[in-house]
């Protein structure tokens, strides 16, 4: 088997005839929505003011922010695990998670680490997400800060955490879930405008007056003025030989067209952000099985978001350890785990049941600590081996 050339230069690279595109080391964002609409990322931020978009985003993020987190010692020391736990509490993981998950909605997220010397160590004092508009990727797919130079500045790896969602070689900017909502929101806003116009015109009854043929133009205008006053004040005075009646529009079926259209737009937004609809809106028809399936889809999305958060926090842990303990092997670094408290208790109970069958006896203090029980909430009882 020939092995020549296996360690040579990369062959498939961005074509040299397109080099003029990258003279300033700027790789264009290939997002078709932003190109076709002639807008930038600010347009995606405007979408978050739509109530349905905001609700779907909150639901997506809440699935992960609801989780607990803990530091695993792994092969490291107790002191290292405690240090990392203190660091994560200091930077406020609960606040950091939504910033990490902004990558899902905007394609990527750039989190700057502000380091500070504490007790002889260099530790993160805070971590802040910076606007995506301030950055771009170069032809090597490296993140650059725009700064005051046309070619920008390559972002130092020990100063920033780069989070990318669905990024590829061709698209380091990542997949933007909000891009999939752009046209649905635009059409929805226009639909609102037309619907409001329709309601103003046909949604309320209007007054119609009957006048004798002998009325002059001046008398007709006086009657019209009286009708306008009646619409505003609910009362008025008209000649006794004239009559007024309420006329009700019968265009309700036409109004339903607008309602169905706006519901369709909301459904498209739900599918783009949470991959289903039943958890963000009530449908006219549905079933328990369908709702259960949709909740399962949302749970799988949460698992993917959880892995993205764990990966980012692991990179932070690795940075803290490498900056302060460069001689320590990476396999001795602590790790982090996000978990649902109920799931952990069930897993712990299953493990304890197996140990109990093997003859292990646990103390009251163990149950109080591991299962968050109060002393007066349980009694110890010797169980048989079939437990």
Could you walk me through the main structural features you see in this protein, from its secondary elements to its overall organization?
- It contains eleven helices and ten strands.
- The chain is an alpha+beta fold.
- Among the domains are: 207-247, no CATH class; 343-387, no CATH class.
- The strands form four sheets. It has a three-stranded antiparallel beta sheet, with helices on one face. Strands 4-5-6 form a three-stranded antiparallel beta sheet, with no helix packed on it.
- A hairpin with a 7-residue loop joins strand 5 and strand 6.
- Helix 5 crosses helix 9 and helix 6 packs antiparallel against helix 8.
- The two termini are 59 Å apart.
- The model has no long low-confidence stretch (mean pLDDT 80).
């Amino acid at each position: 088997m020939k092995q020549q050339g296996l360690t040579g230069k990369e062959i498939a690279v961005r074509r040299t005839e397109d080099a003029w595109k990258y003279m300033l080391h700027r790789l264009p964002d290939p997002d078709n929505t932003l190109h076709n609409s002639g807008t930038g990322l600010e347009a995606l931020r405007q979408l978050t003011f739509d109530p349905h978009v905001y609700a779907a985003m909150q639901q997506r993020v809440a699935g992960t922010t609801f989780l607990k987190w803990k530091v695993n010692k792994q092969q490291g020391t107790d002191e290292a695990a405690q240090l990392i736990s203190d660091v994560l509490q200091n930077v406020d993981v609960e606040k950091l998670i939504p910033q990490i998950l902004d990558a899902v909605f905007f394609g990527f997220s750039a989190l700057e680490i502000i380091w500070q010397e504490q007790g002889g160590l260099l530790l993160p004092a805070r971590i802040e997400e910076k606007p995506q508009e301030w950055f771009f990727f170069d032809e090597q797919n490296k993140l650059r800060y725009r700064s005051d130079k046309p070619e920008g500045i390559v972002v130092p790896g020990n100063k920033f955490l780069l989070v990318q969602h669905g990024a590829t070689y061709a698209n380091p900017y990542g997949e933007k879930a909000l891009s999939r909502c752009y046209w649905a929101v635009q059409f929805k806003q226009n639909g609102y405008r037309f619907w409001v116009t329709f309601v103003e015109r046909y949604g309320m009854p209007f007054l119609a007056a009957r006048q004798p043929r002998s009325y002059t133009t001046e008398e007709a205008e006086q009657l019209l003025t009286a009708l306008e006053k009646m619409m505003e004040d609910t009362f008025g005075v008209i000649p006794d030989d004239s009559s007024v009646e309420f006329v009700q529009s019968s265009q309700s079926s036409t109004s339903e067209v607008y309602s169905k259209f706006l519901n369709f737009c909301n459904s498209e937004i739900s599918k783009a952000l949470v991959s289903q609809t039943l958890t963000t809106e009530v449908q006219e028809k549905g079933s328990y099985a369908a709702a259960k399936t949709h909740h399962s889809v949302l749970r799988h999305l949460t698992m993917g978001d959880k892995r993205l958060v764990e990966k980012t926090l692991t990179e932070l842990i690795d940075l803290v350890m490498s900056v302060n303990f460069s001689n320590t092997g990476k396999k001795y670094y602590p790790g982090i785990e996000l978990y649902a408290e109920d799931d952990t208790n069930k897993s712990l109970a299953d493990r304890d049941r197996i140990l109990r069958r093997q003859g292990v006896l646990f103390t009251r203090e163990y149950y109080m600590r591991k299962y968050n029980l109060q002393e007066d909430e349980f009694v110890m009882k010797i169980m048989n081996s079939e437990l």
